[in-house]
Design brief:
This protein is mainly alpha-helical. It is built from 13 helices and 3 strands.
Amino acid sequence: MDWQSAINGFQNYLKLERSLSGNSIEAYTRDIGRLREYAEIQLPILKPDNIVLSDLRSFIQWINELGMIPSTQARILSGIKSFYKFMLIEDMISINPSELLESPKIQRKLPDTLSYNEINNLISVIDLSKPDGSRNKAILEMLYSCGLRVSELTELKLSNLYLDIEFIKVVGKGNKERLVPISNTAIKALKMWLNYGRVHTNIKKGEEDIVFLNRRGSRLTRVFIFMLIKQLAENIGLKKKISPHTFRHSFATHLIEGGADLRAVQEMLGHESITTTEIYTHLDRDYLKSTIIQFHPRS
C-alpha cells in the first residue's frame, strides 16, 4: 500500500467518521507526513502497512534529534496512533504497530487563573457608553459564566439560546453538542446586547443567527476576542498573561474550589475524558490548608 492512498483514506475517516474540522484534519495529515518523510529518507521500502513497532520507536528518536519538544512529539504520536487505529478498523493491517508505543513524558503547564475580583475589574473598565460596550461586557460574562472555548463563543447562535430556562446549547469540538447553564448576571448582560446593541446592527447575509457581531454585521474573529481581553488587562494594569481560555480555566477552577463535582464540570466544559478536566483541580495552598483544617479529624 502506498502512502498517499493510506493518507487519503485517513482524511476521509477523520472527516466522515470523526467529524473533525478542516484545521484538525490538516494537523493530523501533517503529522503522518512526518512519518512518511522519515520512511522515505531512512528506508524507502517502509510503507504504512509494513511498519513495525521498532520502526516507530526509531521515528520518535529521529524527531527528538531534530529538536522537537516533548509536547510536539506527543502530538505527532497521537496522530500516528489515530492513523493506525484507522488502518486496523479498515483491515489494512492485522496488528497495530503503535499500540505499545509510549508517549514522551511532558509537564502540563497550567495557565494563570483570574480571581473573582480581577474578573470584575476587567468587566468594570468596559465603556458601556460606546456602541460595542454592551457586546464586550456580554462576551466576558459568557466566557466566565459558561466556560466557553473562544470558538464556541464566536459561533454561538441565537437559536441555541434558551434563556427562559437559563441554558444555552453549545457546539464544541467534533460538532458535539452540550447544554450549559448560564447565570442570571450573564443573561442580563446578553439581553442588553441583544435588545439595545445588536438590533441596531446592519447584519450581513448568512450571519442572522450569530449572537456576537462586529460593526459590519459579521461574526467576530478569535483574534478580536484575544485583542479585546489583552486591551482590558492593560487598562487595569493586570500583569498576568491572559487569554479567552483564562476565563474558561477560571470558571472550572472556581467551580471545583466551591465544591462542584468533577463529572459535572467535565460535562459543562465538554471534555471527552475526565483526565482533561483534572488539570483544573490545582487548588491554591491556602485553600487546601483551610479545607484540611476544617474537615480532617486530626485537625
